[in-house]
Amino acid sequence: MAFSGEHSFRMKALESELFQFRIGELATMTGASTRQLRYWESKGIISSLIREGEQEARVYNYKAYVTVASIKQFLDEGYTLQGAVKKTKEYQKNWHVLHEVIRHSVQGMAVLNNAPAVDLGFFDEDKTQRLYAQIDENNKVKYTVQPWDDDSTRIE
DNA sequence: GTTCTGACA
DNA sequence: TGTCAGTA
Question: How many angstroms separate the CA atoms of A20 and A80, rounded?
Answer without folding.
Answer: 28
